[in-house]
Amino acid sequence: MRRVETTAQGEAEAARRLVAILRLAYSGELAAALAYRGHARSLEEGEVRRRIETIEEEELHHRRQLREMLRALGCAPRRLREARAWLIGRMLGLICHVAGWLIPMVGAGKLESRNVREYEAAARHAFGCGRREWVDCLLTMAEVEWEHEAYFRARVLSHRLGRRLPLWPAPPPKASIRLRFAEECGRLDGALQPASAANRPAA
């Protein structure tokens, strides 16, 4: 794989792509958090509900981090996209009350799988535009989304009907997230270390 360009033109393009991903992810996390809130409330008290509530908080934590990155870049979220994300999240949350838990978890798993790749791309663009201090944080977000995908996949496969459904492609192993980054961007001080507790929401 070719290394990320370091020319002025390459840095400008990387910055443009980074902003686009951050804006998309910021609103996407809102839709996801609202959907998970509705999903959790549709479930009985127990381990599964608590796990969904934890996932919701992790999505909101990502949103706070993304907001700080956008501010540092002098950019703001798209208002129309935010409004659409709120509407989608609320609708999905309400659907969970009537659709049962299987279909919502299938949808959530597909979404989380996409989010893994999204944050990996954001980390590469952050590296490419000189925002190396964000690389570890973005890779950690990708790893957390990987954990979400794995949880939803396991839940779907625990259902007798879920085992017969054509599922989304399984992502590569979690460890490959940082290995892929190393291949494309080279070894970065601190960027390939295990995810730090500072990048996770407080318990």
Topology record:
Elements: H1 8-41, H2 47-72, H3 79-99, H4 102-128, H5 135-157, H6 176-185
Helix pairs in contact: 1-2, 1-3, 1-4, 2-5, 4-5, 4-6
Could you describe the 3D structure shown?
It contains six helices and no strands. It is globular, with a radius of gyration of 17 Å. The longest helix has 34 residues, at 8-41. It has helices at 8-41, 47-72, 79-99, 102-128, 135-157, 176-185. The N and C termini lie far apart (39 Å). Helices cover 69% and strands 0% of the residues. The protein has 203 residues and is mainly α. Residues 188-198 have low confidence and may be disordered. It has one domain: Up-down Bundle (Ferritin).
Short note summarizing the structure:
This protein has six helices and no strands. The protein is mainly α and 203 residues long. Helix 1 packs parallel to helix 3 (79-99), helix 1 (8-41) packs antiparallel against helix 4 (102-128) and helix 4 runs parallel beside helix 6.
Low-confidence spans? 188-198
Number of strands: 0
**Shape designation:** globular
Helical content, roughly?
Answer: 55-70%
How is the main sheet built? none
Radius of gyration (Å): 17 Å
| CATH structural architecture | Up-down Bundle
**What is the CATH topology assignment?**
Ferritin
Overall average pLDDT:
86
Q: Beta-sheet strand percentage?
A: under 5%
Count of DSSP-assigned helices:
6
CATH class: Mainly Alpha
The oligomeric state of the chains shown is: single chain
How are helices and strands ordered from N to C?
HHHHHH
The CA-CA distance between the termini, in Å, is 39 Å
Classification by helices and strands: mainly alpha
How many domains, as an integer? 1
